[in-house]
Amino acid sequence: MSTPRRFSILFQWFFVLLVFGVLTAVFFQALQRPTVYRMEKRCQLVHVDAVGPVEENGYTVYREIIPECAWTRPVCAVTARQTAFTVELDGQPVYSHTPGAFDHGSTVHWVPLPRENLAGKTLLVYSPSNSLTVLAGDHNDLILYYQDANAPALIFAFLFFIFGMGILLMSLTARLVLDRARPWTLRYLGIMVLLMGLWVASDTTVAQMFTGRIAVMNVLSNYSFMALPFFLVQFFRSIMDQDSKYLRFLARLHLADLSISGLLQALHVATLSKTLFMTHALMILTLASILWILLVRRNSEFRKEVWIMLIGFGLMGCCCALGFYDYYLLDRNWYVLWLSTGMLLFVTSLLAVAVCYVYREMIKSSRLQYYQKLANTDMMTKLQSRTAFEHRMEHSSMLEGSCTCLMMDVNNLKEANDTMGHIAGDELISDAAECVLDIFEPLGDCYRMGGDEFVVLLEHISEADVLASLSSLELAINRKNLTRPFPLSLAIGYATGYCAPIELMLNEADQNMYQKKRQMKSRVAG
User: What's the mean per-residue pLDDT of the chain?
Assistant: First the structure.
């Protein structure tokens, strides 16, 4: 891993730890401050219970006589799951509701009541459903009541958000370490966990305290839940050695489910909650398919990870079964808590598997980088190898900007081998490569093409800078010759151009080099 990337990772974790440290310090300072005001919940809420059906229309009647209470802002709060209802006070209609396309399962309707002379009056609510929750009391008391009632769900939502952001941060770190766009494994898992948090938060009545757009909360709640199995399938596809056609088909089914449900909602054919059974059916099919895949692979080389997922899968299955039972048979809102608990346990097992998977990928990546470096580096000279040059030609055969190609050849190598042995010849090549690296490596790419031939590719450089570098190379060779028993000499030819093909410039530089070599030989012979 390069030094800039290592520094980036260290800085990133230092910043995260610094933020958490500062927040912790501020939090403990806040705890030490004296309590100035604390809103306490007053026990003045009236639960309006059903008293039975009205004979003429079969509606369920919720009736209560309002007691003597000091309500500064009296409100009747009715929680209705997509059903019509009417609120009356002493026989006078106060509020009437007809369910719309975006009604939420836990929507609370806030019905203002007169502030005076409420004591002794009869509050009536008529509805064809017997599953309404009707409360009366002060507005602030009701807010505290719903906050307390939704506290477990909000805690789960907070945990999911923190968990998801942490997983995405791990994904970013893994990407920097692996030096590639993968692993998608942590990204899919992080997105899935964030969707869980969004689903749990938007499915509570507390969301209505921050926005009056109940329809938007309904869409967020349903779509975040419907998208969960898609990212679950993508997670499993990313950790498998070979992509599964069946899982790819399931992913497309979930995308189709999202599209069809949205289209039916847009055309007012069926609401998102009415088409939720398709998501539930697909979710059961997906979980069954993943369970089968895990059981098939339980004795594979990844059996440890498989067993971890099977344990998490079993815990989630039990919680989901209880959640579906609550949703369809008991008609309560506890299914969110059951599903949240199961998913949190399952996500924990998936995170453990994802960390193991990323660790294996990091090991593979480090080994691959080592072998690639080994293949692309000439071990004797530390220059890039001919393999690296051919790889460069395959991916980019053009030099950008004002460019130069230099071709170099060691003079009198055969004479050094014949008179002083091949070890002396190798030292001659190594010393020449050392001089070339010192001068040209900061400017471009240096290759050993084989034997005693070197190639240097330079981009965005003027000819004047090239000539200055050649002068520096000559000085470096002269310094090297002060301690050498056999003098080092290089024949150098170069070609310049602008956005020119490497092959064309290489041929021109090669011709210039041999011309230079002939001139040097004739000068010695003369």
Answer: 78
